[in-house]
Amino acid sequence: MKNYLSLLLVVFILGALAYIGVQNRLPQEAAVISATQNDKIVALSTFTIIADMVGEVGGDKVESISLTKPGAEIHGYQPTPDDLVQASKADIMFENGMNLEVWTEKLRASIPDVPVTRVSEGVTVQYIAEDAYAGKPNPHAWMSPEQGLIYVENIRKALVAQAPQHEAYFNARAEAYANEIRSVDEQLEDALGKLPENNRVLVTCEGAFTYLATDYGLTEEYLWAINSESQGSPQQVAKIIEVVKEKQIPAVFCESTVEPRIQQEVVAATGARLGGTLFVDSLSDEAGPASTYLELLKHTANTIITGLIQS
Hints:
By secondary structure, the protein is an alpha/beta fold. It folds into 2 domains: about 40-190, Rossmann fold (3-Layer(aba) Sandwich), CATH 3.40.50; about 195-310, Rossmann fold. The protein has helices at about 1-40, 50-60, 80-90, 105-110, 145-160, 165-190, 210-215, 235-245, 260-270, 295-310, and strands at about 40-45, 60-65, 90-95, 115-120, 200-205, 220-225, 250-255, 275-280.
């Protein structure tokens, strides 16, 4: 009888220990499952404008990171060791393409298993007409809202491929964002359409507004085609001075990532005024006037209109 009671006691203790073990393990397993379900896609973009678009489509399912900071010059950017570390944490990478970020070759070599999406794939390409870059694609296609819609679709497809369980979510956000872009397109068409026929010449430092000018019937003139170390040569400055005088252009502009000193030479030589700062290669910081892609488009249009009309 004593042996039987002892056996029952052992069985009871073992059963209790097993129950406690299961109860202790369940919260840990639940935490692991919860963490897995709440994991966001880490999306690394080459510059702020693309990162903003990815964030709009990805919503709370994506951690959208820009490799370059607001205000950075992206054409000649050189990745740092910290950039390579950051890239190693990415699940997917987004780039513009069209020879804009040639510096990503080193970056991509460090993350060969990370898929890369070229968001400009499928746009209607505008080609550079002069300078050393003549015949090459102008990479600034996002300055056309119509082409920006193609960026959004490429981002949507890439995120769905990365996380197909969220397809409906990404589809809905992409469609809502696309409708916002269409609305801004209509606003820009109406506003820029009101510029008089004799005052529709846009003179900038970089030739980054070809897509915008094509969309809204403006004539584009610029000091140099692409930001580079050779920008602002005496020949480039003399050419624009002649154009501004001949066409009696009242205002010229420069971009936020470019020192306006050279455009000031045009102002001094022609009597035109500096019409304002345009954003094209980078967003502003959050406190600035172009902290999102949509705000960048609206601010650019408003600056052009104000600069030309008030001159």
